[in-house]
TrEMBL record:
A Pfam family assignment: LRR_9
Free-text function comment from the UniProt entry: Required for the organization of the mitotic spindle. Maintains the structural integrity of centrosomes during mitosis.
Main localisation: cytoplasm
Protein name, per record: Leucine-rich repeat and coiled-coil domain-containing protein 1
Entry similarity comment: Belongs to the LRRCC1 family.
């Protein structure tokens, strides 16, 4: 097979240098067969024969990466892509989630149609530093509710966790309590919203209380001043009476 050489970056009108690269179903065996511009914003290499994520660490401005329907077995080589927002690795050979800890701006992750049963790579994404909101994990091998909760409950911004779609699911979906697990992200988001609302009300109440205390202090000071003036006036009246 002839190597594809340097891929041309084109938009729908055929203009180059628009920041997007689409090289689908071209028989690529390695990303290194392409010469990728570091200024690219989106890369779509869907439906090739790529087995390893390499030769992409210099594309620092990349925001969208689609490597779905390839032969990838490990999530790796992404540590420098700190601007990445969406990552599609569906329909590959991945068995565990890993290698995502540097992707603090990642909001959407599609790992459906893999062989994943180890989610421990999500734990480094816990807290407010990471922005992950949407994870599609349907058609995998997840079989433990405890492990699923342990790895996802700390994802601060998570609102959508997809374990089942169109009849394709995970073994965990057939266990008691699985529906609650799938909705926990949305429930947590609602609870967080209520918490923030209550905090705003509490702070507003404190501000109102502070205002009342200040007004009372002003009134007390004015009353004290008036009292002293009255005493002064009474003293003068007695002196000249």
């Amino acid at each position: 097979m002839e190597a594809p050489g340097e891929a041309e970056v084109e938009n729908e009108d055929g203009d180059s240098n628009c920041g997007d690269l689409c090289f689908m179903d071209k028989g690529l065996r390695s990303i290194s067969e392409l010469s990728l511009d570091s200024a690219l914003h989106a890369i779509n290499l869907h439906c090739n024969n790529i087995s390893k994520i390499t030769s992409i660490d210099h594309v620092w401005n990349l925001q969208h990466l689609d490597l779905s329907s390839n032969q990838i077995s490990q999530i790796e080589g992404l540590n420098t892509l700190t601007k990445l927002c969406t990552l599609n690795l569906s329909c590959n050979l991945i068995t565990r989630i890993e290698g995502l800890e540097a992707l603090s701006n990642l909001t959407r992750l599609n790992l459906s149609y893999n062989h994943i049963n180890d989610l421990s790579g999500l734990m480094p994404l816990h807290g407010i530093k990471h922005k992950l909101r949407y994870i599609d994990l349907h058609s995998n091998c997840i079989d433990s509710i405890h492990h699923l909760l342990q790895c996802t409950v700390g994802l601060h911004f998570l609102t959508n966790l997809i374990l089942e779609k169109n009849g394709e699911d995970n073994p965990v979906c057939h266990l008691p309590g699985s529906s609650l697990v799938q909705n926990h992200g949305r429930v947590e988001a609602q609870l967080e919203s209520l918490y923030r609302e209550n905090e705003c009300l509490r702070k507003a109440s404190e501000r109102d209380s502070d205002t009342i205390r200040i007004k009372c202090k002003i009134i007390d000071d004015q009353t004290e001043t008036i009292g002293k003036l009255k005493e002064g006036c009474n003293g003068k009246a007695s002196k000249y009476g």
